[in-house]
Amino acid sequence: KELIFIYPQDYSFFLKKLSGLKQKFDHSLYAYCLMPNHFHLSIQTRKVTISKIMASLATSFSMYFNRTHNHFGPVFQNRFKSILIQDDPYFLQLSKYIYLNPVKGGIVGNPADYKYSSIREALGREPLYFLDNDITRLIGETKESQKREVLENDLSV
User: Which whole-number Å values give the CA distances from 156 to 3, 114, 148, in the listed order?
Assistant: First the structure.
């Protein structure tokens, strides 16, 4: 419940590490949102387990945080929580949950205004940098424009 992202460079370090992990481990990143005291990721693993990816991310960020902020001890309170996504409707719900976090947290009124989230990439409003694909190409066989419209309407973007 303590802040883990205090300054913009904290968010930048985390995102740089997240990007680097895509080169190191075989996985796909479909959504992220970094909140001041926690983060959400939607990742599809392949050969490497989610535990290995998260351990690498948490360890490097904890070392950075402790060194940068003169902090000692653990940065993260608990082990990460993972949920298996088995169908497109749940995948879409999870994406909405991730992207609405800054709105529910009272940080922004519109999720597209939050700069520490991949929502603009997911909606095709920015080039794909972190994400492996925009959300509309991952969900069923509905036309991309219809999927984008559903997501934008549900998020009031």
Answer: 28, 13, 12
Class of residue 4 by CB neighbours under 10 A (exposed 0-12, middle 13-18, buried 19+): buried
25-75 pLDDT tens trace: 989 899 999 999 999 999 989 889 999 999 999 899 889 988 999 888 777
Q: What is the dihedral of CA 92, 116, 100, 89, to 10 degrees?
A: 0
13 vs 155: CA distance, rounded Å: 28
Beta bridge partners of 33: 40, 117
Question: Residue 135 carries which DSSP code?
Answer: G
Backbone angles phi, psi at 138, to 5 degrees: -105, -10
